[in-house]
Design a protein that fits this description.
Strand 1, helix 22 and strand 2 form a beta-alpha-beta unit. The protein is mainly alpha-helical. The protein has 22 helices and 2 strands. The longest helix has about 35 residues. It has 2 domains: about 425 residues, no CATH class; about 60 residues, no CATH class. The protein has a two-stranded parallel sheet.
Amino acid sequence: MNLSLQKDNTLKKTLYIFFIVLLISDIGYSFKQYLANPLDWDMAGGILPADNVKPVLNNPIGTDAILNNTEYPNPNRFFSHWAFYNYFNSMPFFLQKFMSPVDSIYWSCAIVKILLHIAFLAVLGILFSGNRKIFSFGFLLFLIILTPLFQVYGYQNHMGIVDKSSTYLFFYPFPLLLLIIYYLPLVLNYYYNHSIKLNLFLKIIWLLLALIICLSGPLNPGINLIIILLVFLKLVFQNYKEHRGSGIKTQIVKFIKSIPADYYFYFIPVLILSVYSLILGTHNDVNNLYQTPLSEIFLKLPNGIIRQFSQKPGFPVLFIAITINIILLNKAFPKKEKSKLLNTYIQVLCFCLIYILLLPFGGYRDYRPNILRYDTILPVTILIFYVYVSSSVKLIKNLPVKKTLMYIPMVLLVSFIFTNADKTDFKENLCEKNAILQIASSPNDTVRLNCNCNVLSWKRIMNINENRENSKLLLKWNITGRLKYFSNNSD
């Protein structure tokens, strides 16, 4: 018996070390992948900043837009703009103490991406496992299954978490990470039965965080309202089951008394601020560029769903794995235990369906013609990850040894498929780098590039006038000693 326990401990320690090495290696590899990402067209506007970005930076909570009935881009996304502006107006200059100005830009982009990557792994690991001991074996098991799902290349355009675009990074994954952190104590309290109480100082911080998440990015206000709706409906249903024989007045009183005090603290601020953010969003003048009728947008939704979830193998593989997991859970666990888990998965499905059905109300954009895109479905992607990872760990921990040994190869196969898919061209931004170096070294005030790649843009810019902000950005970053305009005349 003692020999068996010793063997088990030795195996666990060996696996623990292996998991740590694997995670560090994966993070290092991901950083190298992020270093290969090119720059994007929207960077200059947010970093200089452009004239149309200044109103949102000058008016954090957007009161001018409402009181004066004015419109300007993204009035309800101050904190995303602020974080983006300040990061890229500080980090490159710090790094220039150790490296060239050109390299400092790509390193700045890679650093913020890998920091967000690590933060997501840590926060999602806690959210999925309920384990706050981030160096425990159980926590690492969740991360080992979760890590391969993070695609820097591979399936990134369909299920990416950390955006390749340094600009979009601050408007989609970064605000969503803050939103998850906001709700994390509540989830740990009521789903995992951890006793977490916020002291007065943390409550003030959390109220500030509520303001930040509601005025950051386009997704958070809608996510907040769906979460509040689902929690409200769950409480109503539970109250009805417990007091169905009582009168309506009694049921209402019982319902109000049954709501935990913490719910008021977490939900009321984000409810008010989310509604305010959505109202403020009606003053976004970008909406005027796209006057597509709502009925027409909804007609695009079915095609968008099919394309987003079936074009690449990533989602189909996860859907198959989840189906197998749920079948095994249904067979292997007692009714009460599996009922709780399956009810959670049903709630996840309800959130995903409501969220996707509400996406058309966000309006049409030509860069996401099918409404669904990897960035707009980010919360759905994370919840699909949750169902797969949590059900896989549940089976590994609770199946009999022989069945566990038969099951683990499926998890390894899924991890292999995702790891194999995430192949990288580490020279992807080399052409762009060389073009920027050409601009920097040219003695001319106007530089006509001849390269087969995009340079600080989504497409090749043939007109020098369209590149004026990018030219100013290169000067601001100390890459050029004076203002140099450029265009790409390559065929």
